[in-house]
Amino acid sequence: MEAQRLLSGFCSTSPIPNAKTQFFVKYSSPSSSTTSFAQSHKWVSFKARPLSTKLIKCTNTTHTETAEVVVSSDSYSQDSIGGILRKKLAVFVSGGGSNFRSIHEACLNGSILGDVVVLVASKQGCGGADYARDKSLPVIVFPKTKLEPDGISPADLVATLRGLEVDFVLLAGYLKLIPVELIQAYPISILNIHPSLLPAFGGKGNYGMKVHKAVIASGARYSGPTIHFVDEHYDTGRILAQRVVLVLAKDTAEELAARVLREEHALYVEVTKALCEERIIWREDGVPIIRSKENPAEYS
Question: Hey, what domains does the chain have and what are their CATH numbers?
Answer without folding.
Answer: 39-48+81-290 (3.40.50.170)
